[in-house]
Description:
Blueprint: H1 2-9, H2 11-23, H3 29-61, H4 65-85, H5 98-121, H6 126-151, H7 156-178
Helix pairs in contact: 1-6, 1-7, 2-3, 2-6, 2-7, 3-5, 3-6, 4-5, 4-7
Amino acid sequence: MIALMSVALAADSFAISLSSGMFIKHIKFYKALKIALFFGVFHIVMPLIGWITGLGIRELVEAYSHWVVALILIGLGIKMIYEALVPDREITFNPLDNQTLFGLAIVTSIDVLAAGLGLSIISLPLPMIVTSFGLVTFVLSFMGVFLGHYFGNFLEDKAEVTGGFLLIGAAVYILLEGIGVIVPVAP
């Protein structure tokens, strides 16, 4: 389940990386590395913040945790699908500018903050979560820069829609597990 969520939550960063790759004139290893590091690090830090926040409210929502987590993930999934289907606007930016990358990393990791909050409520292992979220995001973002540079616009919206459906699938699984329809699988 954590691997599935990692891929789904990395979809925004992957889509931004694809877009960034289209704007980079002379693609170099270190340019893709810089973008991937920004996104990967934020996908480690933000679930930590969400996790810590979730620990404070865990006892309040323990009995309803599967509903809370499912609603958060369904909301995130719908948001990702909606944003992918909204018509594109012409955007010009420098994807290698530190301020731009910082802003993009925050925006693409808000979903991960919410996921960290939800995952703390159902007591999944923090080291596994942040390692998976960060590593998957780093790898997909790194590849996304090169794919975007070479293949252009073709993949961008498809990644976010797929990620949205993966989050909704994870939410349904958590909900069914929480109400006892399916037997829990060890994370």
